[in-house]
Amino acid sequence: xxxxxxxxxxxxxxxxxxxLDPRLKIIATLVYIAALFVVDDFLGFIIAAVVxxxxxxxxKVPLKFILRGLKPxxxxxxxxFVLNLFMVQGKVLVHVWIFSITEEGLRMAVFMAARLILxxxxxxxxxxxxxxxxxxxGIEALLSPFRRIGVPAHELAMMMTIALRFIPTLLEETDKxxxxxxxxxxxxxxxxxxRRAKSLIPILVPLFISAFRIAQELAMAMEARCYRGGxxxxxxxxxxxxxxxxxxxxxxAAFLAMMIAExxxx
Length: 266
Prior knowledge:
Blueprint: H1 22-38, H2 42-59, H3 63-67, H4 74-87, E1 92-96, E2 99-102, H5 103-128, H6 132-143, H7 153-183, H8 193-199, H9 201-224, H10 243-265
Antiparallel strand pairs: 1-2
């Protein structure tokens, strides 16, 4: 299950989405997330799902690889679905003992599950189609206007990107530690959920040690290369807003207008 987490990973491919300006992709992701929280009917979710499906197809990232990232959070989605299903008051459809399923609860449960799934897939596409260094440059460029009020744009962008980049690295380290302990007789599969959770506690100490070691090695590598961030940092390939980015901007504006019109009209 650890290997199923795709957040923070980059999928190498030659696609139109991969070549887009990272600043535009970050803005598009934020707009898409905001649109998901504005949607309150089935038509809006269908439009959002269709648009996301088209982007996935154009990105050339395998759908199976993207859906694999939903496995680790399946329990969270299920818990959210059940919580909304039984806790929302309204017109009762089914009543069993002390539990009641209402029409409003069923609608809310479906909406929340769909919102979480689309949110995770949409967010994963940003890291799957954007290299870490490009993501850093894009975040820094978007935060640079706030430097006038003292916001450390470069430092924030670097920390966010390193955090995302460390996710697959730490997952790989966790997998190695689990395999090493399983070879020594550790059991992570049998027993109920509480027992399985307790069996994971011995993994935390070597994982923390490994995380600090990786962080130290990264800091030493950056110092050895005389890394200096902020305004003193130069770039070999600067970000340029070209024709394909303009087309993508128009499509993003059309999607946003469509979602607003759907909300207002319906």
